[in-house]
Every structure is written in structure tokens, then in C-alpha cells.
Amino acid sequence: MYDFAHCLSDSIEKITHSICTLEFENNRPLYDWILDQLKLDSHPQQIEFARLNLSYSILSKRRLIELVNHGAVTGWDDPRMPTIAGMRRRGYTPEAIRNFCARIGVAKNENLVDVSLLEHCVREDLNERAPRVMGVLRPLRVIIDNYPETQVEEFECPNHPQNPGMGSRSVPFSGDLYIEEEDFLETPPKKFFRLAPGKEVRLRFGYFIKCVNVVKDPKTGKVVEVHCTYDPETRTGFAPDGRKVDATLHWVSANHSVPAEVRLYDRFFQVADPTGDGDDFAKHLNPKSLEIVASCLVEPSLAGAAPGSRYQFERLGYFCVDTQASSTKKLVFNRIVTLRDSWAKISGKEKR
Fold first, then answer.
1. Beta partners for 142?
2. Chain segment 82-106, per-residue pLDDT in tens
3. Is the pLDDT at 43 greater than 80, yes or no?
4. DSSP 171-184
5. Which of the listed residues 142, 198, 239, 265 has the most CB atoms within 10 Å of its CB?
6. Integer distance in angstroms from the first to the last C-alpha of the chain?
7. pLDDT at 124 over 90
């Protein structure tokens, strides 16, 4: 029935070119024969092209509905799903998707397009349009011992370093801060350039700080608080004596930060071609395709951020306010894409 309905509906609707995937190539003689026999005024031309296959993903509706029905995803708009609804909720822009489609073009041969190209198009677009903000995913407390206890400064920070037209926002600074847990090591390896005992770093838009002491949990031995001193002469980002630091860290003020939940999305499948060895594609699902980090802190300018709005969290990646789970009482961000293609580095190491 489809063979009859396809050509007739195209003719009735005055379709000039009927674009199909390659599996319909064998149907074209029948498509033409029916229209010729009926001598209809409109005779569309059927043209076949290769189906788009995306690495570390599947685009077959038959297989995607299995994931939905079995609860492997939350629905058709799950940010891991390669659907328009899923990509929109993830934070992909229409411009990035159109750019990706223009780059891959239309082919006659089946091929597997690297998802890294899609992610590159997303990064390229968001780099131009996403305002910069600071957020800390896994907070580690930093106390600046010699900073005036009740003092709060307001730092005027540009929303985009290359686009002054995007304006700026005011970010409060105090002697009680949070940095990323991974930005501090008590016993660092040789090439660790971030904060460590006796080491000096710069805070983004702020001062040089130097670690002088740590406080540990008595039960676990884990560092829970880092004590530092700051150099008040380094507010401009430079030291009067010309000394340099190896790293600049992002931060939030403890008393001014806003709590948030962040959902870190990764590749949907563990292998590039999940259906390459048969129909049991579900066995290749990546169990780490979603990590929920519940105790994040973001700068106060993000309080009340509108659902769907996109930002670059400095040094971390691009994030979008979730359109379903986020509310005025609870901010929820989806990671759209990392700043760099970390997956390519991991895959390269595994191959070696």
C-alpha cells in the first residue's frame, strides 16, 4: 500500500522532487510505472540519498522508541536523544545544526559522520553568542586569612571578552570563596600548575592568592578548607614586582553564590557504531552518559536565569538552563558541550 500511496500523494500535492533514503531505490521503477499508467499531470522525480548515521548515537526511530519504552531515557526530549526536542533541551542552537548539515552535505554512499563535527559546530556558534559566567561544580572552600572580614568588593566582569557590546555584570568578591575541588592538590605532581601549598595563583578578575594552610576532615583525611593570603597590590591582574603565576582559577563568593544542579551529559553509547555487530545495540549504552552534580554554586547574576538561556561557564564548558526541571526555586543546568573535545583524547589514548 505504501508503494501506491507514496507516488499518488506526491503527485496530488504537486511535489516536484521526492527525496528518499537509499532503501527506496528499488521502489523507483514501481513509483514511475504507477504514475505513467494513470497518466497524471504531475509526475514527481524520486531521488535517493544516503541516510545520516552519527557516531556514538542511533537515529533509527524504531530503535529510539525502544530506549523510550524501556526507560533508558526520560522521553523523546531527553537531552541525550538525537531528536530535535532532545537537542533543543540540551541547548543546541538551530544555527549550529544547520551549519552541521551544510558541512556534511548530501551523499549517495552510506557513511558514519563523526559526532565531534556536530559538537564543533555547536562550540563554534556558542563561542560567539554565549555570555561568560563563573560556576563551581564541586566546591572547595577557600578562606583568605588577611582579607578584611566584612569587606565585599564588586568586580565589573565583561560578559564576553571579544565582544564589548554584550556588556558586563557585577560579581561580588569576599574573603570566603569556593573554587573547583580539582583545582587544588595537597601533594601535586610536577606539572600541576594550579593551587597547592606554598603556590600562588590568580583568581579570575581578581587578586593573586597563595596557599598557606589546609584543614582536613578528621575522619577521612580529605581537605575540606584551604587557607590563603592575598596580595592587595595585584587587583589589576599583575604584580608590581613583575612576578608571574601559572594559573588563573574561577571562583564564587560563598555568601553570594546561588545553589544549582548541573547535569553533565556525555556520549550516548560507548562505541562509535552501536549497531555494527547486530541489533543488540542497548548493550553499548554508556552508563556514564549522565552525571548529576547536585551541590554546585554559581555567581549571583544567574539567579532567575530564564529556561533555555545558554552560558559559557568559564573553564568548564557551555551550559543551558533546563526547560523542564529548572525553576525559580531550583536552578538546573544541562551541559551542552565541553570547551574541548576531551573524548577524542581519551579515545586516542585507549587506541594506543
1. 177, 226
2. 999 999 999 999 999 999 999 998 8
3. yes
4. EEE-SEEEEEGGGB
5. 142
6. 52
7. yes
- For 66, counting Cβ atoms within 10 Å of its Cβ (0-12 exposed, 13-18 middle, 19+ buried), the class is middle
Rounded to the nearest 10°, the torsion over CA 135, 138, 141, 144 is: -40
Distance CA 29, CA 277 (A): 32
Rounded distance, CA 309 to CA 322, Å?
8
Does the CA dihedral 88-91-95-99 come out positive or negative? Answer: negative
SS3 call for 95: helix
Could you give the domains of the chain? Answer: 2-49 (3.40.50.620), 53-134+257-352 (2.40.240.10), 136-250 (2.40.240.10)
For residue 36 the three cell numbers come to: 505513467
Tally the C-alpha atoms within 13 A of residue 266's C-alpha that lie toward its C-beta: 15
Q: Is 6:33 a contact under the CB 8 Å cutoff? A: no
- Cβ atoms of 59 and 29 closer than 8 Å: no
Q: What DSSP character marks residue 195?
A: B
In the chain, the amino acid numbered 140 is: L
Q: Is the pLDDT of residue 210 over 70?
A: yes
Alpha-carbon dihedral of residues 340, 341, 346, 351, nearest 10 degrees?
Answer: -140
Cell of 333: 543546568
pLDDT, tens digit (0-9, with 9 covering 90-100), for 250-307: 999 999 999 999 999 999 999 999 988 877 899 999 999 999 999 999 999 999 899 9
Q: What is the pLDDT of residue 23?
A: 87
What 8-state DSSP symbol labels residue 130?
P
pLDDT value for 350: 46
Tell me if the pTM is above 0.90. no
Residues 6+ apart with CB under 8 A from 334: 79, 89, 90, 91, 262, 263, 265, 319, 320, 321, 322
Side chain identity at residue 235, one-letter code = R
Q: Are 199 and 211 in contact (CB under 8 A)?
A: yes
Contacting residues for 212 by C-beta, under 8 A, at least 6 apart: 145, 197, 198, 227, 228, 229
Could you tell me which residues come within 8 angstroms of residue 308 by beta carbon, excluding any fewer than 6 positions away? 91, 320, 321, 323
Q: Quick one: cell of 209?
A: 592568592
Tens of pLDDT, residue by residue over 163-207, are 999 999 999 999 999 999 999 999 999 889 999 999 999 999 999
